[in-house]
């Protein structure tokens, strides 16, 4: 499926495009992006915009913006968010809507479904959703940390066909193009493996918080959900013209042939583990069967404080991560069960009614 066959896309714009000099918002680079969004909508392609830039936009209003404290960054985000939205709004002749998120919103299943419904309702009414992380209120425990990964989570929530991640280079190179003149652009990636991560490095722009590594992380999340993913140069109008011509202007990541079920994708890539259940090594074999159920006699220990319905990590004693799953029981009861002797477990005296995790609520992790 080419880009022009997409019915719904997500495009992610970074801080360097919004406020390149940290002197407020600039439409210099945004004009071509806005035109691209307009032309997509004219072709019947629905668009969701993930836009960074509130901190960079608000920095000019503060005296000490070179090394701001965490509190000042939150204040910058609060001040800059209104300017950023106003800048986008004036570039379109159709309505826009603001959605501010934390990872706490995305990882909570009920709020995640609410986000899906809101995005869908906005698109049905011809309104452009503009999403950003809510930097003003987020904490280390609640933040995604970068809008690259958030854009992949939004693409899953929005049911998008394609994800476009804008960068300051043409795409993924085999070497850092800023330091190696012989670096070659990789036009297509069929599988994201250790080699792809190794060449991505951890370079970041001077303004944004996401480098190529976070873009690869986002691409991995997106393709596992069946989303066609592109990393393109957002500073070049040519990138958007080529996309609208049905061509690939940067690096294209092919989606998995068998995408993960939506619920399992959310559990794997969006939900955060609230605790761990350590199991014996024999349990890993059961993950390869059609019927996977964790029982009390397979539990070695329990870490963390979690409640029924929370997402947990299932791992072996040597640290191998096996799966993420929705638990049917809380940590208090599971701790009690894990502490019993093998004889008492086998007697069934301390076994709960029903499995600890059910086969439809377990997402096996690739190691």
From TrEMBL:
Pfam families: AA_kinase, PUA. It catalyses: L-glutamate + ATP = L-glutamyl 5-phosphate + ADP. It is an enzyme of class 2 (transferase). The keyword Ribosomal protein does not apply. Pathway: Amino-acid biosynthesis; L-proline biosynthesis; L-glutamate 5-semialdehyde from L-glutamate: step 1/2. Residues 275-331 form the PUA domain. PROSITE patterns: GLUTAMATE_5_KINASE, PUA. GO terms for molecular function: glutamate 5-kinase activity. InterPro entries: AceGlu_kinase-like_sf, Asp/Glu/Uridylate_kinase, G5K_ProB, Glu/AcGlu_kinase, Glu_5kinase, Glu_5kinase/COase_Synthase, Glutamate_5-kinase_CS, PUA. ATP binds at residues 12, 167-168, 209-215. Catalyzes the transfer of a phosphate group to glutamate to form L-glutamate 5-phosphate. HAMAP family: ProB. This is Glutamate 5-kinase. It comes from Paraglaciecola algarum.
